[in-house]
Specification:
1 helix, binds zinc ion, mainly alpha
Length: 59
């Protein structure tokens, strides 16, 4: 059984001949990294306070 690229599902070259392993290419590696970072950014940071007065808010 040969490994498949998790991004595009193509066959992946062996690790020895493939610097982007376990992806088929550097492009797919970057796509995965981009997705991963995107998800990380989507996780909301800790709430900065419970609405204890926002200066920009006008009545
Ligand atoms: Zn790929």
């Amino acid at each position: 059984m040969s490994p498949r690229c998790p991004i595009c599902k193509k066959a992946v070259a062996p690790r020895a001949a493939n610097p982007a392993f376990p992806f088929c290419s550097t492009r797919c590696k970057l796509v995965d990294l981009d997705r991963w970072l995107g998800e990380a950014y989507r996780i909301p940071a800790e709430p900065a306070g419970d609405g204890a007065g926002t200066p920009e808010e006008e009545p």
